[in-house]
Amino acid sequence: GAGVSQSPSNKVTEKGKDVELRCDPISGHTALYWYRQSLGQGLEFLIYFQGNSAPDKSGLPSDRFSAERTGGSVSTLTIQRTQQEDSAVYLCASSLTPAANTGELFFGEGSRLTVL
Amino acid sequence: GDSVTQMEGPVTLSEEAFLTINCTYTATGYPSLFWYVQYPGEGLQLLLKATKADDKGSNKGFEATYRKETTSFHLEKGSVQVSDSAVYFCALLDSNYQLIWGAGTKLIIKP
Question: Quick one: pLDDT at residue B80?
Answer without folding.
Answer: 97
